[in-house]
Design brief:
This protein is of the alpha/beta class and about 200 residues long. Helix content is about 55%, strand content about 15%.
Length: about 200
């Protein structure tokens, strides 16, 4: 992405159960445009014919059932195979990057937000003007995901163990919102962040 584009892009990230989607929705309610990388990736793997073929070559024909991305089959393969996961990411993320560039061209405001779970892992924060991390205590995050997805404590814990440690993300982030209490507190913290961002 050309240099001048980075000046108004803010990376928004957070681990599972952190509440980054809630922050994204608050930002939208305040008039900001948010690009949901993770949601777009789910669409792109079903839309991009070249990508579809490459994924089949990597993971086999069973990666798609009746032309639809077989998320459970793919997850079962890559969850315990780091090499396959990295190869899959190297296929999907460039396609998402192109989609994001096209999205940016259609939005002309002072700040645009790029929501992605892997902002720091993929080094995407280096292309952003600033980065915002939404975080919460691990037990709080696990309970949220258990309540939301019906998973066991250990199932959520395994997912968290595979993500970059929160302490590392906090060191890398320009701004951090701690989401350990109520939605009202999260709104206040997000609006406080907006004031700081606008003052830059």
């Amino acid at each position: 992405m050309e240099e001048q584009r980075t000046r108004n892009i803010v990376g928004l990230t957070g681990g599972i159960g952190s509440g980054k989607t809630s922050v994204a929705e608050i930002l939208e309610s305040e008039g900001f445009a948010v690009y949901y990388s993770d949601d777009r990736a789910k669409d792109i793997v079903n839309e991009d014919e070249v990508l579809i073929q490459k994924i089949k070559e990597l993971l086999g024909e069973k990666a798609y059932v009746d032309g639809v991305y077989n998320r459970k089959y793919v997850s079962d393969i890559v969850f315990n195979d780091k090499s396959k996961l990295e190869q899959l990411n190297h296929l999907i993320h460039p396609a998402v990057a192109i989609d994001f560039e096209n999205w940016v061209k259609n939005h002309d405001t002072r700040f645009l937000f790029k929501e992605t779970a892997l902002l720091f892992e993929l080094g995407l924060h280096k292309k952003c003007f600033k980065s915002l991390l939404v975080t919460a205590d691990e037990n709080t995050r696990i309970k949220r995901v258990m309540d939301r997805d019906g998973k066991t404590y250990r199932e959520v814990e395994k997912v968290i163990e595979k993500q970059m440690p929160e302490r590392e993300k906090i060191k890398k982030a320009d701004f951090v919102i701690y989401n350990n209490s109520s939605f009202q507190d999260l709104e206040i913290a997000t609006k406080d962040f907006i004031e700081k961002l606008n003052s830059l």
